[in-house]
């Protein structure tokens, strides 16, 4: 589950929207992270899969026209393997390796795994929602209505969890707010 | 076209700003210049200029509120683009007080983006949040709750907690939903502060609104992850919710690409996977709904596959069920055999799924060996790494050499430290567990150290040293010493390398010190010389130097003990001198110790540094019994006897009043006593767990009860396999395959699997004989794609005997088409299922769960989107026109969207209509319908508006960044 950040970056590497969850990075950290990630994603071809690992994040990205939508998720898989085996070589080699194998399996089960495809579709849902609101949404719409794009994201994701996926529910508060003002 | 353009302009003029109305000229200018910035440097210049002007103007008195909002958003831009805008934070905080909702929400948004939750300004917002939580306007309440999620820290939770709890019962569902999530956030921050409120989450699960229910799954997931057992009672509820969701009982607005509320389904599956893990009874309640899902999931859409993947994960986590396993395996092979488009994503998911399933049944990897090897050799790094993960999971002693070799090759080829460390630790782990020979182990470790030495955990180095010292535990001293001398040989060779990581040097020094001269192949002088070279040739730190000097000391001691004379080499002497003058006291001491050792006679030296004694336990005489005589003598000479601390303290109060200092001490002692009371009880308790853990060094210390449960579960898994052991693994597969064709399959579960299996086994036998002709066709077909010999060899080494079996099968089948039905052949029957062969079968009854064969009855898998597109085609004829209007005849349309489902000329309008159109056909009562009709028109107008406004503002589509106008949805 744990979404760590949502980033919109265009092909030139310019950030168009950035929202971080669960942690507050300093400006420099953010700059460095965004730069590294964008470089990594830009280097990939269209045939390659839409997932990249970076540091302790797994990044799911999707490109629309010239805009990249990137979602960073906890890379639990990485933690899974940070040494579950003990020094089992020697003495009862076979026996202990069986135990180690089983125990590792248990660790894998316990930890929440990322469903990358679902995140990929979540991105699409976000774009569809913006499209419904702005009509033929383009990069400039997001730039001119940065706060609204943020509001939509606020409705969809809280504490790094996807909480709302019904487009009409997401847009209702924003439309009401517009009407009122 | 000209006409359209002018209409657009007029429209824009008329509405003064069109789509982007309500923003100031300056803001539009800023966005325009950022949008057209060619480089990061240019963007930085723009923002710095902007910050300067904002700094001046934001502080002006009486800035109108609307204008202030504008400023704040410009500040957000500045921060987003990496520039400090802290001078404006306070204005964002002030804006949260505003009465107007859009301004308030913008203020909250800016504050959440700017401030860390321990920022000093937060304290100024608490009051506002409290006030807003009491507001009559539920949108204000929502805004406050959203902000609370991000801004409230552990200390301020109590300030808003009661209000948030009250809001859980708010009449508006959005408020309830946000209150749940706020409480979730509080739980994340400080579980203790809300521990008494956890029952609220259970209550909200039954909320009448599906949105609230869906949101509640997030905190419940966290809670269940922490403590599974307390939530077992909810299994039935979760399963029934999932069933209802899958049966489209939720409002249509939750549908996404024809899937009913897929994101909620996924969350439920994750929870059920946790709850069912290793629990037969809980899993039993999930089987039905899971098999329903397998049947219903559409494999043509991404989201369908996402749900399917989640089902596979769930199946691999819960107590295994044969039918579900089969369905999961089937779905996984679909992923792996995905057709070219988008295939990399699916392959990635397939590899991951396979990694989960082989934990339950290691044999299924065989079927996909070639797909796995393709992924391993794919240029896509992500896919490659995922495949290594899979290989890691399926490593056994028969294939460890190939796998680790591949991993090391990969390790050498990459330069990302994060990845390197990860792969290196896996190599080490596999080598430690499955090493076929000592020689191999040492060589492997050498390679890992050489290429990723500084990234390896130092524990690994210690393990290696221990291994070399202890040998392999067999009572064969000869083998051990052979191991050691081969290690020494390899290290002496490696020392010639120019750059070695420090950790590796430590290992080398230690081994050379202990065993360099052990087999008599090398002289002491040679080894000492090498050790001195190490410290000179490699820029080493104090630790390596310490290892080196200790090694030299050992060699000297061995030489002296053996009665030989130690000649001090000049380089060794200079090294010694250097260390004697070192700033590090540790190094100094070692140097002096060595010098002292050189003066000892042979027996003493032998006692100080006994030969090959690194594994001997050093005995420590805690009672210091050897001092008793000395103490006795001293007491006889009139010394004060030693008193334990407790006695000393006790006495000081009673007998010694002599000095004020001691009185002070006594007062101390009084205080001490008060605190010391609980001590006796705690002391005996603590050491016990330590002792117990240290004795069980073979078992991975199970920290939680959870592990233990899982161990049991995994052992239990073996059960069904063992029961069918007489049928043989291949037979079992066969039986499984046959079962696919059985019409009884789709009926509800709880059929005893063992009975079924044997009957299937029999059927399979007959089938095996009948299907020989099929075998041949299958094999010849298989040969056709010409899998390279190298790949086959790799497959054989990775997947063990199975691959060679395949080859054997191939020849056998060709030679004798009606040989006796061996198990091996039957395994190919399993694979021979294909559209071609299924036809000559005597029409098997259609099976609902079978994805493997495209059964004609399930033929209408034509993409409804595509169909609708066709229908709307005339409408979308406007598309190209409008497109050219938008881009102003710009030909530079080089960059098409990656995920475009439609040809570029079809405008997005038609697509969105298509999807919404299907909604409306699905349910005519769907309320969106009138909206679409309205939308149809304005969409085009919108675009014209946008274009015109952009021109007004001065953003020309032909500028530096024409893509600014590109429809995101293509």
From TrEMBL, chain A:
<comment type="similarity">
    <text>Belongs to the adaptor complexes small subunit family.</text>
</comment>
<dbReference type="InterPro" id="IPR016635">
    <property type="entry name" value="AP_complex_ssu"/>
</dbReference>
<keyword id="KW-0813">Transport</keyword>
<dbReference type="GO" id="GO:0012505">
    <property type="term" value="C:endomembrane system"/>
</dbReference>
<keyword id="KW-0472">Membrane</keyword>
<dbReference type="Pfam" id="PF01217">
    <property type="entry name" value="Clat_adaptor_s"/>
</dbReference>
<protein>
    <recommendedName>
        <fullName>AP complex subunit sigma</fullName>
    </recommendedName>
</protein>
<dbReference type="InterPro" id="IPR022775">
    <property type="entry name" value="AP_mu_sigma_su"/>
</dbReference>
<feature type="domain" description="AP complex mu/sigma subunit">
    <location>
        <begin position="3"/>
        <end position="78"/>
    </location>
</feature>
<keyword id="KW-0653">Protein transport</keyword>
<feature type="domain" description="AP complex mu/sigma subunit">
    <location>
        <begin position="108"/>
        <end position="180"/>
    </location>
</feature>
<dbReference type="GO" id="GO:0006886">
    <property type="term" value="P:intracellular protein transport"/>
</dbReference>
<dbReference type="InterPro" id="IPR011012">
    <property type="entry name" value="Longin-like_dom_sf"/>
</dbReference>
TrEMBL record, chain B:
<feature type="region of interest" description="Disordered">
    <location>
        <begin position="742"/>
        <end position="853"/>
    </location>
</feature>
<feature type="compositionally biased region" description="Low complexity">
    <location>
        <begin position="744"/>
        <end position="759"/>
    </location>
</feature>
<feature type="domain" description="Clathrin/coatomer adaptor adaptin-like N-terminal">
    <location>
        <begin position="50"/>
        <end position="598"/>
    </location>
</feature>
<comment type="subunit">
    <text>Adaptor protein complex 4 (AP-4) is a heterotetramer composed of two large adaptins, a medium adaptin and a small adaptin.</text>
</comment>
<keyword id="KW-0333">Golgi apparatus</keyword>
<feature type="compositionally biased region" description="Basic and acidic residues">
    <location>
        <begin position="767"/>
        <end position="793"/>
    </location>
</feature>
<comment type="similarity">
    <text>Belongs to the adaptor complexes large subunit family.</text>
</comment>
<protein>
    <recommendedName>
        <fullName>AP-4 complex subunit epsilon</fullName>
    </recommendedName>
</protein>
<dbReference type="Pfam" id="PF01602">
    <property type="entry name" value="Adaptin_N"/>
</dbReference>
<dbReference type="InterPro" id="IPR017109">
    <property type="entry name" value="AP4_complex_esu"/>
</dbReference>
<feature type="compositionally biased region" description="Polar residues">
    <location>
        <begin position="904"/>
        <end position="923"/>
    </location>
</feature>
<dbReference type="GO" id="GO:0006886">
    <property type="term" value="P:intracellular protein transport"/>
</dbReference>
<dbReference type="InterPro" id="IPR011989">
    <property type="entry name" value="ARM-like"/>
</dbReference>
<dbReference type="GO" id="GO:0012505">
    <property type="term" value="C:endomembrane system"/>
</dbReference>
<dbReference type="InterPro" id="IPR016024">
    <property type="entry name" value="ARM-type_fold"/>
</dbReference>
<keyword id="KW-0653">Protein transport</keyword>
<dbReference type="InterPro" id="IPR002553">
    <property type="entry name" value="Clathrin/coatomer_adapt-like_N"/>
</dbReference>
<dbReference type="GO" id="GO:0016192">
    <property type="term" value="P:vesicle-mediated transport"/>
</dbReference>
<feature type="compositionally biased region" description="Polar residues">
    <location>
        <begin position="819"/>
        <end position="837"/>
    </location>
</feature>
<keyword id="KW-0472">Membrane</keyword>
<feature type="region of interest" description="Disordered">
    <location>
        <begin position="949"/>
        <end position="970"/>
    </location>
</feature>
<keyword id="KW-0813">Transport</keyword>
């Amino acid at each position: 589950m744990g979404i760590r950040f949502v980033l919109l970056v265009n092909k030139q590497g310019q950030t168009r929207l950035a929202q971080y969850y669960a942690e507050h990075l300093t400006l420099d950290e953010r700059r460095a992270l965004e730069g590294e990630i964008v470089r990594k994603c830009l280097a990939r071809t269209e045939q390659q899969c839409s997932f990249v690992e970076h540091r302790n994040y797994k990044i799911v990205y999707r490109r629309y026209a010239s805009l990249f939508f990137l979602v960073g998720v906890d890379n639990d898989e990485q933690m899974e393997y940070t040494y579950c085996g003990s020094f089992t070589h020697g003495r009862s080699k076979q026996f202990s390796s069986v135990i180690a194998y089983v125990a590792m399996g248990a660790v894998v089960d316990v930890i929440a795994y990322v469903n990358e495809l679902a995140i990929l579709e979540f991105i699409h849902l976000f774009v569809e929602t913006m499209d419904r609101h702005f009509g033929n949404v383009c990069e400039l719409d997001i730039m001119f209505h940065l706060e609204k794009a943020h509001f939509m994201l606020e409705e969809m994701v809280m504490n790094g969890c996807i909480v709302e996926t019904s487009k009409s529910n997401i847009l209702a508060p924003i439309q009401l707010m517009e009407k009122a003002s | 076209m000209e006409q359209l353009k002018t209409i657009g302009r007029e429209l824009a003029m008329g509405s003064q700003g069109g789509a982007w109305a309500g923003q100031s000229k300056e803001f539009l200018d800023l966005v325009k210049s950022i949008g057209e910035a060619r480089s990061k440097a240019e963007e930085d210049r723009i923002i710095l200029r902007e910050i300067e002007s904002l700094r001046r103007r934001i502080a002006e008195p009486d800035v109108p509120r609307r204008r202030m909002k504008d400023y704040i958003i410009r500040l957000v831009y500045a921060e987003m683009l990496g520039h400090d805008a802290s001078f404006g934070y306070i204005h964002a905080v002030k804006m949260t007080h505003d009465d107007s909702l859009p301004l308030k929400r913008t203020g909250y948004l800016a504050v959440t983006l700017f401030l860390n939750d321990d920022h000093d300004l937060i304290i100024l917002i608490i009051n506002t949040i409290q006030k807003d939580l009491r507001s009559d306007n539920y949108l204000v309440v929502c805004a406050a709750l959203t902000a609370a999620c991000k801004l409230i820290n552990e200390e301020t939770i109590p300030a808003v907690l009661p209000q948030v709890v009250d809001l859980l019962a708010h009449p508006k569902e959005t408020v309830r939903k946000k209150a749940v999530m706020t409480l979730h956030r509080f739980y994340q921050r400080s579980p203790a502060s809300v521990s008494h409120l956890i029952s609220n989450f259970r209550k909200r699960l039954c909320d009448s609104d599906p949105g609230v229910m869906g949101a509640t799954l997030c905190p419940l997931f966290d809670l269940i992850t922490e403590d599974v057992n307390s939530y077992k009672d909810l299994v039935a509820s979760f399963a029934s919710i999932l069933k209802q969701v899958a049966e489209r009982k939720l409002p249509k607005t939750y549908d996404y690409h024809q899937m009913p509320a897929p994101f909620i389904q996924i969350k439920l599956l994750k929870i059920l996977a946790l709850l069912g893990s290793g629990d037969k009874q809980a899993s039993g309640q999930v089987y039905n709904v899971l098999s329903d899902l397998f049947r219903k999931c559409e494999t043509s859409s991404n989201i369908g596959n996402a749900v399917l993947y989640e089902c596979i994960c769930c199946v691999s986590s819960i107590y295994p069920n044969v039918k579900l396993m089969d369905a999961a395996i089937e779905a996984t092979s679909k992923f792996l055999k995905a057709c070219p488009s988008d295939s990399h994503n699916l392959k990635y998911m397939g590899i991951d799924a396979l990694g989960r399933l082989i934990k339950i049944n290691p044999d299924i990897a065989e079927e996909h060996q070639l797909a796995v090897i393709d992924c391993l050799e794919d240029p896509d790094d992500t896919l490659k790494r995922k495949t290594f993960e899979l290989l890691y999971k399926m490593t056994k002693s028969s294939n460890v050499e190939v796998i680790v070799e591949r991993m090391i090759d990969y390790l050498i080829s990459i330069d990302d430290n994060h990845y390197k460390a990860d792969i290196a630790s896996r190599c080490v782990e596999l080598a430690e567990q499955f090493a076929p020979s000592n020689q191999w182990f040492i060589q492997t470790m050498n390679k890992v150290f050489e290429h990723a030495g500084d990234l390896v955990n130092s524990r690994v180095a210690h393990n290696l040293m221990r291994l070399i010292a202890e040998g392999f535990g067999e009572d064969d001293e000869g083998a051990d010493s052979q191991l050691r001398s081969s290690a020494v040989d390899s290290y002496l060779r490696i020392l010639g390398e120019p750059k070695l990581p420090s950790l590796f040097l430590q290992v080398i020094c230690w081994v050379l010190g202990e065993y360099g001269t052990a087999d008599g192949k090398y002289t002491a002088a040679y080894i000492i010389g090498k050790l001195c070279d190490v410290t000179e040739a490699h820029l080493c730190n104090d630790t390596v130097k310490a290892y080196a000097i200790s090694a030299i000391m050992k060699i000297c001691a061995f030489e002296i003990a053996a009665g030989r004379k130690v000649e001090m080499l000049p380089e060794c002497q200079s090294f010694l001198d250097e260390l004697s003058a070192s700033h590090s006291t540790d190094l100094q001491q070692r140097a002096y110790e060595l010098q002292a050792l050189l003066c000892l006679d042979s027996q003493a030296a032998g006692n100080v540094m006994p030969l090959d004694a690194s594994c001997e336990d050093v005995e420590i005489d805690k009672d210091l019994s050897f001092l008793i005589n000395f103490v006795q003598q001293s007491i006889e000479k009139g010394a004060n006897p030693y008193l334990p601390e407790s006695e000393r303290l006790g006495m000081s109060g009673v007998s010694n009043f002599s000095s004020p200092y001691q009185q002070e001490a006594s007062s101390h002692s009084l205080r001490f006593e008060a605190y010391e009371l609980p001590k006796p009880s705690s002391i005996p308790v603590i050491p016990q767990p330590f002792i117990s853990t240290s004795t069980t060094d073979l078992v991975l210390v199970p920290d939680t009860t959870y592990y233990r449960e899982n161990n049991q579960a995994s052992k239990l898994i073996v059960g069904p396999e063992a029961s069918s052991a007489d049928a043989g693994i291949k037979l079992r597969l066969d039986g499984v395959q046959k079962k696919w064709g059985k019409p009884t399959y789709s009926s509800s579960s709880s059929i005893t699997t063992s009975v079924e299996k044997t009957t299937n086994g029999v059927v399979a036998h007959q089938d095996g004989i009948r299907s020989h002709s099929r075998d041949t066709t299958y094999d010849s077909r298989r040969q056709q794609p010409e899998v390279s010999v190298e790949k086959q060899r790799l497959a054989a080494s990775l997947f063990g005997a199975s691959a060679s079996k395949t080859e054997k099968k191939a020849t056998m089948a060709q030679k004798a088409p009606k040989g006796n039905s061996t198990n091996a052949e039957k395994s190919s029957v399993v694979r021979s299922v294909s559209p071609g062969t299924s036809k000559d079968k005597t029409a098997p009854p259609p099976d609902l769960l079978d994805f493997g064969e495209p059964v004609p009855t399930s033929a209408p898998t034509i993409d409804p989107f595509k169909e609708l597109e066709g229908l709307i085609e005339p409408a979308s004829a406007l598309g190209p026109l409008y497109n050219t209007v938008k881009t102003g005849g710009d030909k530079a349309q080089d960059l098409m969207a990656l995920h475009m489902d439609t040809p570029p000329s079809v405008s997005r309008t038609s697509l969105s209509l298509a999807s919404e159109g299907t909604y409306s056909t699905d349910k005519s009562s769907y309320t969106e319908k009138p909206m679409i009709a309205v939308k149809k028109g304005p969409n085009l107008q919108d675009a014209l508006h946008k274009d015109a406004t952009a021109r007004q503002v001065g953003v020309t589509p032909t500028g530096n960044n024409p893509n600014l106008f590109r429809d995101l949805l293509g």
